[in-house]
# Entry
Amino acid sequence: MRNYILPIILIALLLLSACDKVEGPYIKKSSEISDTYDFPKRANYVKRVLIEEFTGHRCVNCPMGHAEVKSIMAANNHKVVAVAVHAGFFAGTQSSVFTTDFTTEVGEKLYAKFGTPSVPSGVVNRNGGVKSRDEWAAAVTNGLNQAQEVDLQIHKVVKDDEITIYVQAESLTDGDKNVKIGIYITESKIIAPQKDGSATISDYEHNHVLRKGVTEYEGTTFWDNETIAKGTLKQKAFKVDVKSDWNVNNIHIVAFAVNNSGEIIQAEEL
# Structure
């Protein structure tokens, strides 16, 4: 019996060493961490609205959607936060031209939640369902006219191949709160092909592109049916691995507060 012990041990060690080898590609993850940041007190509060625009680089009409978002943002003095969600058939890669994969898991989930609509289309504060581009401006005005219940602040630290993200929520009213906070990473100034009518623009500038959901699109719970006093603060922090095809100089963090009806009640971007 003793003669069998050594071979068994050697086989076990070989199996263990084999399990240590992990083949690429490696999954880039985000994780919540127990860290805080000392946010400054707000001098004033600004209501902001979120447009989640469904789009695709092979969509012939989508540049008109991009132009409409740009126009709405310019008309509303930094009160509109935009996220370009590349999802669905026209977001897929194709041939040797449309090789950049702008799709994300969280973006595809959000797109499916709203019934995989035709593009360009979008949701404004996720209120009133999917809207065509000529309906976005009115929906933004309606959103900005709503009372602000929650304020958000964002801080980020970029170090090597990691981003640490801090998000703080402040209640601006007394009462019961059921609020989740969602966090996206977007990137702008990405040069890659885009269909535009019958033409293909090879050096098109893609902006506000959803790159990653730090949380799911529904958000992570901040206040769960809690009675909250005005001025109450709560924050969370996350570490995110930077993907090799991101330009960290063009990265933005988007945070948004979601109520118990699934509607967005405030947005912020850094």
